[in-house]
Design a protein that fits this description.
Distance between the termini: 94 Å
Strand content: under 5%
Strand order of the largest sheet: 1-2
Number of strands: 2
Structural class: mainly alpha
Largest sheet: 2 strands, antiparallel
Radius of gyration: 31 Å
Amino acid sequence: MLLVTLITPLMGSIVSGFFGRYLGANLSKMFVTLTMFMSMIASYSIYMDVILNDQEITLNMLPWISMEYLEMDWAFTIDKLSGSMLIPVTTISFFVHMFACSYMSSDPHQPRFFSYTSLFTFFMLMLVTGNSYLTMFIGWEFVGVTSYLLISFWFTRITAMKSATSAMLLNRMGDTFFIIGMLLLISTFGSLNFATVFSLTPYMDSNMLYLIMLCFLIATAAKSAQFGLHNWLLTAMEGPTPVSALLHAATMVTAGVYLLMRSSPMLEYSPTMLATCLWLGGITTSVAGLIAIVSNDIKRVIATSTMSQMGMMVMAVGVSAYNLALFHTICHSVFKALLFMSAGAIIHSVINESQDLRTYGGFLPFLPLTYTCMLIASLSLMAIPGLTGFYSKDIITESLIGTYEMSGFVVYWLALLSATLTSLYSMRMTYLTFFNTPNAPKYAYLNLHEMDYIMVVPMVMLAMGSMFVGYMTRDIYLGMGSPFNALFIHPNNTNLIETEFGLSSMFKVLPLITGISGSLMLLYIYEFNYSIINVYNNKMLNPMYFYFNQKVFSDQLTNNIIIRGGLNLGGSLNHHIDKGLLKVFGPNGLWSLSKHSAHKLSTLSNGSLYNYAIYLVVGLMLTLTIINTEMSGYTLFMLITAIGFMNNNYTNTTRK
């Protein structure tokens, strides 16, 4: 089953990519969707074996690297962590492929699109199931490459190419630190296999563990769009909406969080890095909420929400609640994919394909099913009791208090701010789209229509998941007898028990109270008294609105400080090193030296055949000296003796 899960997406990608022009668009997308369905069914079978029957699967395909003490194989392992990650990856990928069959039906390059999406899923599965950091890195790298191809799918648009390049470059920065971390692992542990590394972790130097996890955390920040390296996520919306749903729901952005969860044994022995994860996640989730509340692009609002939820997962990792991070990853993938599909259905229905919320309004009578799906997904994102998001999101916020540490207490209020802002921007997006005064031209309303059944089916299925997945799976990941407690949690870590049984009820219900209160207040202001927050005429709110609408000027700071500084440094190194030092002492310098030496030797000749013989013997002896280093002393002695003997004979002959 593991081989079926891995190979079927690759088969779909190859067939659609190489033979799509001969099969046609319809056969290509049907074949790719069928292979994704087979992969999904196989992953559910694996999940039953691993989670319910407590079996681990290892597939050792062939030897790969054998270099001194470093032994690496092409091998894949399914344990409880990777088995759990298979479910959202394959499920969301299948639904996205099904949704795209109708959404991309008018595109002339459908085989290429489905080849890219299926290839992306294959490398994500490789990342998740690899049994070593090197195999994970192969999947990690190619996920970045295929994301570039997907974001720039409409490559004739300059904004799409710029966005794809931005995503590629920022992810390459994280990949560089991933490589450095692997090199440190090899020098410290002598292996990259998970089993070897984690078994030796308790006996290793804590400073090396800090350095390794720092490199992995930077890689996570780039891949999972943590604050400081998040710029690519907001511009990646230039790709088609199915691409946004695929990248931002369960695959690419969750890869960084998966790296931290997989490295949990090393993190447990790196308390400084745990605190760094906690603060980084808290800052990310709060800043993302402030950016989303003033964004006007519907897809950018949802993308910023993804950034906020990634911050929540990193926060959970920071308090050693890895099972909470994994559970929220699974739950978040369902309602976030539904949000993107609902946004895609709206954009697909608007005849000018506008994504600006200010040009919407009054869509409810025309798109009732889309409204229902978006409302369910938004309420689940807001963690309304009974829905999927409630079971995974609120307990992360509560666990910050359960640590009984100052950092956790302070970050709790950042998480509370984020939860409140999530409710505000979710209600704002829903209100401006479906209830606001109609702002679109008349011809847009005349052409508004619901999707066909091919797009409706995945949305309805995900809507059901947004209501019931959290309730159905909560005991598997959060129960006191959960196998994930023994898998992830250090025996001395009692955060989950303290959170569940020792925390005051006030801290548990406070996110719900602030979220609902903020939503009701926002609806009242929008409906009855909008002049209160008319930011364009308010001297106090206008600068704040401008600051967060410009994404806290992160793009400007990144371009002017990091990118320009990096380009200047690269130019200086190129001038002084590549074209300076290396040119003098490199091939050009050696060529000039040999040319000059040959010229000098030629001037020593007086035309005598005897001199040429001496030079030939000298060159031959020097060559033997270089080749046979073990007899270099003896060869040098013979060389000096031969030259002296030949010179004496030549002198005596000349005198006679």
